[in-house]
Structure formats: C-alpha cells, structure tokens
C-alpha cells in the first residue's frame, strides 16, 4: 500500500472541506440577505423621498419669490390707479391690475398645492423614520449573527489550513509540487477516487494496466483529466 497516495487523498479531502468553508464565508446567508435587502430598499426609499422634498421645496421657494414680486407689482398698479387723469388711463391701469391679480391667484394656488404635496411626502418620510429604528435593530442583530457564524467558519477554515500544512510537511517536495500543480490546473481537485473502474472526476475508463498499477500502490494519473487517481481501501 502506497502511503503517499493515502496522504494525497487526505490532503485533497482537507482542501475540499476548506473550499467549502471559504465558499460559505464569501456568501451572504439568506437570513441576513433578506433583512439586508429590506434595509437597503428602506434607505433608498428615504433618500428618494428626501430628494423629492428638496426638489419641491426649491420650486416652492421660487414660486413664493415670484408671488411676492407680483404682490409688489399689484400694489404699484393700485397706487397708479389713484393718479390717473382720464378714463383711458383708468381702463389701462385696471387691465394691469386685473392681469396681475390673476397671476397672483395662480401663484397662490400653486404654492398651496406644493405645500400639500410636500406634506404628503413628509408624512411618508416621517412614517419611514418612525419604523427605521426598529428596522436598524433587526438589521444589526442579523448582521451580528452572520458575523458570529463567520467566526465559527473562520475557525474551521484556519484549523483546516493547519491540518493541510501538517500533511504537506510529511510529503516529499516533488510529490507536494505535483499535487499543487494538478490542484491549480484542475479547479481545486488534484486527487480523484476511482469508482466503477472509472475516474470519478471526469468519468474516463481506467485501462486494466493502470488498474494493476493502482492496486500495486503506484502513483497513477487519469488518462482523461490527469488527476492523481485514488483507489479507496477495500476496492
Ligand atoms: Zn479523470
């Protein structure tokens, strides 16, 4: 029995487990992803409402500025009305006053509508704000739970790395290099068990001659994928 192949297989198993932990470390768990989505969308919605209020307020200030200009103008025309000298001037002054009053009325209506619109959006924002503390607490809790579960995973990953180092320390330098060469080329799987006379990684049949070598305990590469083949004990 070739101890080297046994060790390589053990090393492969450790690296496979390590890859699993690292995959888990890189993925947001669904329990956190759910609240994370809710949190992000609440923040986006609040930012959207705030931006809307900002735009409307700016427009409202513009309308109010124009309103105050028009009110000044109206006062001026009303003053002029006192100084008219004939019927023609009187009619002309009244025409100006009439048009300006209409404009003032429009601006007042517009300002009123804007205030109403701002109130509606402000109310939505207030409701969001009221619910925000609770949402933040739930978000923080889920985040902490995720991080603490990562702590366990990180611990496992570190233990697996140490285990791999220990096994590698017992391997001949050339064998270790060979393992890592195939490991790198073959998506993290350097050693493939034999199942039903085939390579379990690429399904290539194993010729009887290679099968004999394997049974002797030789280091044999799959002819299909060049991975190191491992014949499990008792098979
Ligand atoms: Zn293969």
Provide the gyration radius in Å. 40 Å
H/E order of the elements?
A: HHHHEEHE
Ligands, ions, cofactors:
zinc ion
- The unreliable regions are none
**Strand numbers in spatial order across the main sheet:** 2-1-3
How many extended strands?
3
Helix content: over 70%
Give the oligomer, counting copies of the same chain as homo and different chains as hetero. single chain
Alpha-beta content class: mainly alpha
Instruction: Work out the count of structural domains.
Output: 2
Largest sheet: 3 strands, mixed
Tally of helical segments: 5
Q: What best-fitting shape do the alpha-carbon axes yield?
A: rod-shaped
N-to-C terminal Cα separation, in Å? Answer: 13 Å
Tell me the fraction of residues in β-strands, as a range: under 5%
Mean pLDDT: 93
Structure characterization notes:
Strands 2-1-3 form a 3-stranded mixed beta sheet. The chain is built from 5 helices and 3 strands. The model has no long low-confidence stretch (mean pLDDT 93). Helix 2 (30-82) runs antiparallel to helix 3 (87-169). Strand 1 and strand 2 (198-199) form a beta hairpin. It has helices at 3-26, 30-82, 87-169, 173-185, 208-216; strands spanning 191-195, 198-199, 228-230. The two termini are 13 Å apart. It is mainly α and 235 residues long. The structure holds zinc ion (ZN). Zinc ion binds at residues 192, 199, 201-202, 204, 222, 224-225, 227.
